[in-house]
Design a protein that fits this description.
- The chain is α/β, with parallel strands linked by helices.
- The chain folds into three domains: about 80 residues, Double Stranded RNA Binding Domain; about 300 residues, TIM Barrel (Alpha-Beta Barrel); about 200 residues, N-acetyl-b-d-glucoasminidase (Four Helix Bundle (Hemerythrin (Met), subunit A)), CATH 1.20.120.
- Helix content is about 45%, strand content about 10%.
- Helix 10 links the parallel strand 14 and strand 15.
- The mean pLDDT is about 95.
């Protein structure tokens, strides 16, 4: 293959190394700069002319070429209604991606047309004189980030830090030295000089570490702002005034260090209207000018499915500022399985609203709530869908792109959603039974969890669908191995509580013995296999720090099932005359006519396992 016009031999070799794309049918590519669109590709036989506006457009064009090698001669010109498109990965909720896995994702993103990758950090970065910052949490070192930034520059991708300068800093408050800057919960103490010394140090550190003056300063979800030490010191104050006062001080630090700051917008809606997702429009006319236009306010919304909800929020935000962006979601925070279908469902109206509101900056967030079990690569279909939706055409062959990138079709990736779609309704709903049914206690149950016998058949079907994917030769096979293991377990465990309850009340000793020898023994063995495969997944994607949480969860689950097994065996052998938990338990069953068969969104592991304290 002959490439002329630019030097990109190294980048091509990296694409070959990190993706499944092949260049076998490409004879030559000539690159030429122009300013008429993002890029134009003219294909004749197996030779290409590529006109590009910016360096990053070279790789978006290359992604198109690689995923359309089967297409005969063509001449296309593509323009995106967006200046900045980012992917932000949560690094602060136990799963800290390795530099190697971030490099792989950077190449994926560059071929899709993204302009930056954001790292949500909280305290996950090395800072001079602050040894407790990110201690034992897998913090990034200066050398790691320098390596990542140098790598990303080859593809004209920025690496942007997302830090916190108000809330979400609970990890540092485990250390005594930070108690002086604690207000309440995970919130910094406003008006405390030491608070601003720490914030300035964080800002200066990440500016130099990431070689950028673009920083997201957080400031979201500080729901108890001013209600802790601040209240004791100053008495009750108008909380919007507290917020604005703090923002002014942080932005003053940003100005001193030439920082172009962005922040989340939710606190303004929360303090003004009482709820971030209020259906009504909110007017900030009385606050006009109080929020400087040089700070970008990011409206985030991963939940709504009607464009009017997004339109209303943008119209409200426009009464507060002229500098705003949007954050959507690639759903990977509901457990082990992604929710690409719902990501698409929410993105369609969100993107339409962004175009209507002339949004120039869109970031796709991928959070890691309560375990960060799902791989960041499991949302590749969502990332591609969103990137494609901003072009003024419908030319992207998403299936061919994903297959070329990963050796898995789009259907294969979307099939991973099925682990949570175990109800008859065709509606895509944000429920996560694949997580809570794994940990649901066989003796105690849970007041929130409803069960249904049909779950077993659903998971047996999902298991059969996923099994062939575990034999495909791909960099991403490990993700499918993990989720096949989970489907296999849930094809048994999802209805074990029902079966055990019925056998016990029928006093079916033979059935209980078979339950112990077959169902319980098999599910314990399968969980042990899931743990092994999930550990492989974690160590491919992430640093080892944080995996201890998974060890405790899986270890506790396995030991609990062994204890249940022992208790049932004691009952079978008449060593005990009853199982007290089952005598008291009320089985919570979903109605047959419920289109969702009782499935809910219930993501807090600690709530599944006891009615007591943990």
């Amino acid at each position: 293959m002959n490439i002329s016009g630019i030097e990109m031999i190294k980048q091509v070799e990296l694409i070959k190394t990190y993706t499944e794309f092949r260049f076998n049918d490409i004879e030559s590519i000539e690159f030429l700069s122009f300013d008429q669109a993002d890029y134009q590709i003219i294909k004749k036989d197996n030779s290409y002319q590529v006109y590009y506006r910016k360096d990053r457009d070279i790789y978006a064009a290359l992604g198109y070429i690689l995923s359309h090698q089967h297409k005969k001669d063509y001449d296309i010109k593509r323009t995106r209604q967006l200046k900045s498109l980012g992917y932000m990965i949560d690094c602060a909720r136990n799963a800290v991606p390795t530099i190697k896995s971030l490099k792989r994702q950077i190449i994926n993103l560059s071929l899709m047309g993204y302009t930056y990758i954001g790292l949500y950090l909280e305290d996950l970065f090395e800072m001079d004189g602050e040894p407790e910052f990110g201690y034992m949490r897998g913090r990034y070192t200066n050398s790691e980030i320098s390596d990542l930034v140098a790598f990303s520059k080859q593809f004209d991708i920025q690496v942007i830090p997302y830090i916190q300068t108000l809330a979400h800093l609970n990890a540092i408050f485990k250390h005594k030295r930070y108690q002086d800057v604690l207000d309440i919960n995970d919130i910094l103490l406003v008006d405390e000089p030491k608070t601003y010394e720490l914030i300035e140090k964080m800002i200066v550190t990440v500016k130099h570490m990431f070689h950028t003056n673009i920083i997201n300063i957080g400031m979201d979800e500080a729901w108890q702002l001013g209600l802790g030490k601040y209240l004791n010191k100053h008495g009750f104050q108008n909380r919007m005034d507290i917020m604005l006062k703090h923002l002014d001080k942080v932005l003053d630090i940003c100005r001193q260090h030439d920082i172009k700051a962005s922040m989340w917008a939710d606190m303004f809606f929360h303090l003004k209207g009482g709820a971030y997702f209020s259906k009504d429009k909110v007017s900030f006319d009385d606050m006009k000018g109080l929020v400087p236009d040089h700070v970008e306010l990011i409206y985030w919304d991963y939940y709504h499915t009607e464009q009017k909800d997004f339109d209303n929020k943008f119209e409200s935000l426009q009464t507060l500022t002229t500098n705003y962006g949007f954050a959507g979601g690639a759903w990977k925070w509901v457990g082990f399985a992604p929710f690409n279908g719902f990501s698409e469902k929410t993105s369609i109206p969100a993107i339409a609203a962004c175009k209507k509101a002339d949004v120039n900056h869109f970031v796709v967030t991928s959070w890691g709530d309560n375990g960060a079990e799902a791989s960041m690569f499991s949302v590749l279909p969502s990332l591609l869908f969103i990137a494609s939706a901003f072009y003024e055409d419908d030319l992207c062959d998403q299936d061919a792109f994903l297959y070329g990138l990963t050796h898995y079709s789009k259907k294969a990736w979307m099939d991973l959603d099925m682990l949570n779609h175990i109800y008859p309704s065709m509606d895509i709903k944000t429920v996560n039974p694949s997580k809570y049914l794994l940990f649901e206690d066989l003796l105690l149950g849970d007041a929130h969890i409803k069960l249904h016998k049909n779950y077993k058949a659903s998971y047996e079907n999902i298991k059969e669908i996923l099994e062939p994917y575990t034999t495909i030769d791909s960099h991403y096979q490990y993700i499918f191995n993990t989720l096949y293991d989970l489907a296999l377990i849930l094809s048994i465990k999802s209805t074990m509580s029902i079966k055990l309850y019925e056998l016990y009340y029928q006093k079916d000793i033979v059935g209980l013995n078979e339950f112990v020898q077959n169902d319980l023994s098999e599910v314990i063995d399968n969980i042990e296999q899931l743990y092994k495969d999930f550990k492989v997944q974690w160590m491919i994607d992430n640093k080892p720090f944080g995996f201890e949480v998974q060890s405790y969860r899986f270890g506790g689950l396995i030991q609990r099932l062994k204890d249940v097994k022992d208790k049932i065996e004691d009952y079978i052998a008449n060593r005990i005359d009853k199982i007290e938990e089952l005598d008291e338990r009320v089985l919570n069953l979903a109605n047959d006519d419920d289109p969702y068969l009782g499935c809910i969104y219930y993501n807090q592991f600690i709530k599944y396992i006891t009615f007591g304290t943990f």
